[in-house]
Amino acid sequence: PSIDPTASPSTTPSCKPSASPSFRPSPVPSKNSAVAPVLTVTAVYKSRTSITLTTSFATAQFAGVVYCAALRNGAVPTSSGQVVAQGFPASYLAGATHANVTMTGLLAVEMYHTYCAAVTSQGVVSLYADVLTTKQDVETACCKLISCVNCPSFVYGDLTKYTTSSPTTQFVFSYGLTSSPAVSVEVIPTLYDGAGSIVSTSVVEITPSKVTFTKQSTSLTGTFVLKSSLTTTETYTLMMRIAGTDKSAYQSTVETSVRVLSSSAPPPTPALQSAKFTDSGGAVTVSFSAATNKAGITTPTFACNPLFTFVGVNSTTCSWTSAATVNIVFA
Questions:
Q1: Strand 51-56 and strand 40-46: pairing?
Q2: Cα gap 224→326, rounded to integer Å
Q3: Region Disordered: start and end of each range (predicted)?
Q4: Phi-psi region of 154 (alpha: psi -120 to 50; beta: other; left: phi over 0)
Q5: Residue 13: pLDDT above 80?
Q6: Smallest Cα–Cα separation from 187: which of 141, 124, 128, 251?
Q7: Is the pLDDT of residue 312 over 70?
Q8: Is the pLDDT of residue 216 over 80?
Q9: pTM of the full predicted structure?
């Protein structure tokens, strides 16, 4: 055979491929192939008003955000997007294997159904089927609260001392529940004397003696007044007893001192009770413990320095918004 080549080498590539196509994927992923991590809830922590979930996943190739939503009444999300829209976020970095998400503003002793979804930095969202596998049924911790809305520090036992022009906040007690009961709960205002004994209704009558709240109640606020024919002024401790089907789900924060005045007793001197900045920070609302005579000031707006002493008082103006509340405005 000849050792000479049959043709000169060509620089023109052959139209035939040098090898057959391979079905084996490249070991280096394309950025366009990013997928959202498949989440697994590995730990659940709860308080009265929050739930924290620890979500675990395979080492993340890309950064992203985990969203978790808490739904009530057996609700089920209709899409991954719903969980993202309603959920609380927690970011994670590339290389992460878990993220902790805290959902706040929840109701105490309520059953929630939680779902989680991930969104990568590439904009890829968890598959809906994967979202459904993250479901957790979590009941928040005890307890729902009963607290004072308006609890006067003193009242006259003789209600005729009050007129139609008297502010109801002077003699009407009010309290509120943070959320509805599952079935029903009874709130029973109760007075205790210095020895810790319940004050008899023949000494001081509480009207109404109790209020029942149910799941269907449209208002979660209760009110009552004290009536007495005492000829002496007495000091008691006001507390709330709880009864009914859901009593174990509630806790009262009400424990306040109240003086029941005799008809002949002069009202105590009003004391400064609170001073709160408005949301804008440009004014302060000052509240007194009882109605005042407005310091004898009759003009709608007046200089604050006759009434208050503080740094910068000379550049403020005041106005009474009620007999017990004055508004301070900074210039």
A1: antiparallel
A2: 27
A3: 1-32
A4: beta
A5: no
A6: 251
A7: yes
A8: yes
A9: 0.72
